[in-house]
Amino acid sequence: MKCSTFLLKILFLLNLFFSQVSALEIIRDTELEQFTYDIVSNLLKSENLEAEEFNIYFVKSNQINAFVTGGKNIFINTETLIQADDYREFAAVIGHELAHIVGGHIFNTSLEISNLSDKALPVYLLGIIGLMTGSTDTGLVGVMVGQASVNDGFAFYSRTQEASADQAAVSILCKNGIDGIFLIKFLNKLEKLEISNTNNRQNYRSTHPSTKNRITWISSSLENNKNCEFEADRSLEVRFELLKAKLHGFTQPYNETEAVYGSSKDIDLYATAVSNYFRGNHSKSISNMEELIKRNPTNPFYKELIGEILFANGDYKNATKYQKEAINQISKVNDLYFMILGNYLLNFESFDHANEAITYLKKSISLNQKNAYAWYLLSRAYGQIGLIPLANYATAERYFLTNERKLSYEFASKALKYIEENTPEWYRTNDLIEILSQGTSNR
Questions:
Q1: How many folded domains does the chain comprise?
Q2: Strand partners, 73
Q3: Cα dihedral sign for 372, 374, 380, 382?
Q4: Which of 334, 295, 325 is closest to 307 using CA atoms?
Q5: CATH number at residue 323
Q6: Is residue 160 domain-shared with residue 303, that is, in the same domain?
Q7: CA-based, 20 to 30 A from 203: which of 17, 284, 341, 396?
Q8: Is the pLDDT of residue 197 over 80?
Q9: What are phi and psi of 363, to 5 degrees?
């Protein structure tokens, strides 16, 4: 196949799938992210790697799943955490995905693609390209379509990778103080779900091996890893139970959350505060959160949530107060907390509050320059105080991140006409125009 023909096929398939596939719902939550990164940090102690080298994304889904893509990206469905009965089961799933990355399986998979048939190659590569470039919706569909047409040799190769990842995961868990038996416990749960769900036929043509085979391999690995019995970390277990309760309230039906979390314990109040919030019963949510804050006044996640509920009710003053307390109390503030506070301040629609919002939004962007919504809020803040050139610059950054290159170029050009020279924003605007000009000329 000539290269030009191959590229045309890829472009055709990209256009086809982009027009037909809906995006995954990626969610962000500071409590969820910090807990997961703490687990990852613990698992990487023996690997000489830092958790910050990895990008972890959470998909709102009622299906249990986790997978990796190129560039140290890990995707975890929310249902995976909800179905785990112990934080060590969740850690075991993460250990398996880390084993894929540490073992270089994404790279190896790209090499094995060269053995696929000419017919299957463009479709399967569409999936790999989509995943590696962050287009998860296109990528996942490409992979699913590709799986139906690849030969059995690749499926076997992938099953070999899965076996290797399971065995490596046991080693990672045991080296870092987590009992590897919890990987088996989680797989036992999956096996029961597979049996109960008669419509589940994915394993038949899946590149994953059967759950029963995986349990056999892991059991064998555990026999070779002596002294892998460890006690639970109580603090992690408490954090996990609270986080799981909040996610349950966010992702599961209201009646189910009310049935599962029906007592007056902290985890029950937390879960039902969230479920009532999304149901519109804000007074119940606020009452629950006030009780939780009374019991534990230093929990920043309680302050953040009650602030969000109050903000939804138009109480910007108290929402701002609680969010500032959350920022002061959290052990490691992230871009979300600064962005949320900036958003609250903007709704006062006053010059002083907008100026304060700019300070926090800049802090948010300094921590995560790829937060497109923070750039949008910053453009609003600049607009409120009359700094239109800077508002145009922030808008250009936002459109650049969302890959709307034409709009990014237009707003960068507007900004450059009036923005103060030799400022960081002026230099960055020039860089944007140069980058976007090159992209346009290469088309």
A1: 2
A2: 55, 69
A3: negative
A4: 325
A5: 1.25.40.10
A6: no
A7: 17
A8: no
A9: -65, -40
What is the Cα–Cα distance from 281 to 86, expressed in whole angstroms? 30
Beta-carbon-side half-sphere exposure of residue 74 (alpha carbons within 13 Å) = 23
CA pair distance 358, 244, nearest whole angstrom: 34
pLDDT in tens, 125-134: 433 333 333 3
Q: Which of 299, 333, 367 is the last residue of a domain?
A: 333
User: Is residue 410 a part of any domain in this protein?
Assistant: no
Q: What would the two tokens of residue 240 be?
A: 């996990």
pLDDT at 375 over 70: yes
Measured CA to CA, the distance from residue 126 to residue 105 in angstroms comes to: 18
Closest CA relative to residue 301, chosen from 268, 277, 336, 345: 336
Looking up tokens 């797989």, which residue turns up?
A: 187
Are 259 and 177 within one domain?
A: no
pTM: 0.81
Residues 6+ apart with CB under 8 A from 379: 391, 392, 394, 395, 398
Distance of CA 251 to CAs 137, 244, 325, 331, Å? 20, 10, 27, 26
User: Under a CB-based contact definition with an 8 Å cutoff, are residues 44 and 26 in contact?
Assistant: no
Distance from C-alpha of 13 to C-alpha of 32, rounded to nearest angstrom: 35
Does 109 have pLDDT greater than 70? no
- Range with the lowest mean pLDDT among 34-43, 82-91, 108-117, 321-330? 108-117
As a whole number of angstroms, the longest Cα–Cα distance in the chain is 69
Q: Do residue 159 and residue 303 come from a single domain? A: no
Residue 49: which domain range?
3-224
State which of 187, 205, 224 marks the end of a domain.
224
Average pLDDT, integer, range 152-175: 75
